[in-house]
Design a protein that fits this description.
The chain has 209 residues and is mainly α. Helix content is 73%, strand content 0%. Pfam families: TetR_N (PF00440).
Length: 209
């Protein structure tokens, strides 16, 4: 019966993807729940409604699952950052859009809940997680640095120091997200965005600084 199930999954890409997504969603729900130091793999399997053979067909280990979760979440953020930057009318607007899009994670219930998964001590112990996170941060900062460089080139952000400013803006936004995730920031989203924008960008044309 198990072999038949595996063959069916292998022949049905949609079923295989449903299994994979179920495992990832279960891991997001269960990792760090109730302050537990570790989450048994069996709990994730039960939460996803799969067995060990199905799990290992998708992921070689629980650590590999967590790294995949992190990579996929980061890719979604990257794509959304690129999209809002492309849609902005000018470099300043693109920087504001980047700030808004990344900060919005903290005020979106599902995104915020998933983000807290990666702040748990259990995830912090995964081999390779710190290096992967720095690569992710560098990619997200790179999008912002490109926009800042464009603004300096066209004169709309003449004082911009792209790499340094991107590092500083990203650090502040990530800190706000961490505070929000830990319940230490209850300010409205718009107020936090305004705080970051005012700290790092000149006033928009036609407004008072």
């Amino acid at each position: 019966m198990a072999e038949t199930s595996l063959r069916l999954a292998a022949d049905d890409p949609d079923r295989a993807e449903r299994e994979r997504r179920a495992i990832i969603r279960a891991a997001h729900r269960l990792i760090g729940r109730e302050g537990r130091a570790t989450t048994p793999l069996e709990d994730i399997l039960r939460g996803a409604g799969v067995n060990r053979r199905t799990f290992y067909r998708h992921f070689p280990s629980k650590d590999a699952l967590i790294l995949t979760m992190q990579r996929e979440a980061a890719a979604g953020v990257r794509d959304s950052l690129r999209a809002v930057v492309r849609q902005a009318g000018d470099a300043r607007a693109a920087v504001v859009a980047w700030i808004e899009e990344l900060l919005a994670i903290g005020w979106d219930e599902r995104a915020s809940r998933d983000g807290r998964t990666f702040m748990t001590p259990e995830v912090g112990l995964v081999v390779g997680i710190a290096e992967a996170l720095e690569d992710i941060y560098a990619e997200h900062r790179g999008i912002l640095a490109e926009v800042l460089a464009a603004g300096r080139t066209d004169g709309s952000l003449p004082a911009a120091e792209p790499e340094w400013d991107a590092l500083a803006i990203h650090a502040v936004v990530v800190r706000y997200l961490e505070m929000r995730a830990r319940g230490r920031l209850d300010r409205p989203f718009a107020a936090v965005v305004d705080d970051v924008v005012r700290r790092f960008l000149p006033a928009a044309p036609g407004t008072r600084g």
